[in-house]
Amino acid sequence: MYPVSRLRTGELFGHRPISTPRTAVVARNGLNFPRRGLVHADAISLRFSLINDENKLIRKIKLCARKKYEDMGNKQQRTITKEQLPALGSDPWLVFIHGKKNEKHTIYKISDNKYHAKSIRCMREKYVLASYHGWMVLAGMYSDDCCLFNPTTGEKILLPPLEITLEYHACVLSLPPSDPCCTLLFITNSEDDEGVVSLRFCRPTMGRVVHWVQQQFKLEDDRIQSAMYYNGKIYAITYFSKEIFTFEVSDDNNAVPTIRKIGMHKKIPRPLLPEAYVIDKNLVESCGELYVVKIYMDELMPREIKDMEVFKLDCNKKVWLRVESLGDRAFLLGPNCCTSCYASARESKYGIVRNTIYFTMENDTSLYAMDLEDRSITVSLPCPIVKKNCSRPIWLK
């Protein structure tokens, strides 16, 4: 998946710099020294005062977020908001989050080819990190707030504070929060130490306070690219070596995951087209099977999809088997959320078409669909009111 960072440049936490008198000669990025003479002592002291005020503000916001969470004690974490979306039904929704503070939410339903413009309070000033089982993983744009939110029922489950500078490369919610075995896992590839992968997870069970458990492990000059819950474990695939790892969490809330490497007898084959290169590998669970979808781009034309290939994992033989057809299913690829669904006949005017892979791209409001039968790709613009610079839309199912 594409790396996503919640760190944004500009005004920190929406805090604008305090206006200063002209005599202080202070700039936002440092001191504006006069052409002649020495800098006035008041200018230096004011600069340090501004820095201290900003640091105090950061500490205060973090302290308030943690205190708000800790004060809950063992109280019920689940709340229900009045703002919610219509029932999902069997068809997935494509959700666009846009606006300067992510305050606009446009939902597109393929089955009736219509979109609905909303502004849900719980999702404002939030990033949608992932979506599984009808639940969204939300994190604050300007705060440490983190929660699970079900937009169709209005249910909200608070999670422990999540550092605003945290970057992650995969996020998995294994089961619905009503299941006591539900696990939320963040996977982060270290940018400073090559091959180091950090895990952060918790069990967001309804009705009790949870906390983050952290763990690190080492890969050999590689990084995790995609992860998916399958057969009671979380599976992850690496970027370069295409190795498969499993993460299994015991019933103990404080226990670290058991990490195992699956020694594949046969790795994923190379692309059929020599002029294409892989830009993404997405794990998809469908009907009790684990698949990987490889997306290829043209070397000469960036951002133009050249082809796609689908492989199925044979756990017994530990090999990847090429899949030529999805049958009556369709795959839906998105950022940190790939899923599948049963599809209608190919002759239908609207709705999800069988044997098709639907996908979206970063900074692009188009919806792409690749027919695995004739290898053709169609492009549609489901929500024309959404600007092109919005974040990558996410599937809600």
Description:
With 397 residues, this protein is mainly beta. The protein is built from 1 helix and 30 strands. The chain has one helix spanning 41-70, and strands at 4-5, 26-27, 30-31, 78-80, 93-98, 104-109, 114-118, 126-132, 135-140, 146-150, 155-158, 167-168, 170-173, 184-189, 196-202, 213-218, 224-230, 233-238, 244-248, 258-262, 276-286, 289-298, 305-314, 319-323, 329-333, 339-342, 356-359, 367-371, 377-380, 394-396. A hairpin with a 5-residue loop joins strand 25 (329-333) and strand 26.
Index terms:
mainly beta; 397 residues; five-stranded antiparallel sheet; single chain; five-stranded mixed sheet
Structure summary:
The chain is mainly β and 397 residues long. It contains one helix and 30 strands.
List the helices and strands and how they pair.
Elements: E1 4-5, E2 26-27, E3 30-31, H1 41-70, E4 78-80, E5 93-98, E6 104-109, E7 114-118, E8 126-132, E9 135-140, E10 146-150, E11 155-158, E12 167-168, E13 170-173, E14 184-189, E15 196-202, E16 213-218, E17 224-230, E18 233-238, E19 244-248, E20 258-262, E21 276-286, E22 289-298, E23 305-314, E24 319-323, E25 329-333, E26 339-342, E27 356-359, E28 367-371, E29 377-380, E30 394-396
Parallel strand pairs: 25-27
Antiparallel strand pairs: 1-12, 2-3, 4-11, 5-6, 5-30, 6-7, 8-9, 9-10, 10-11, 13-14, 14-15, 15-16, 17-18, 18-19, 19-20, 21-22, 22-23, 23-24, 25-26, 27-28, 28-29
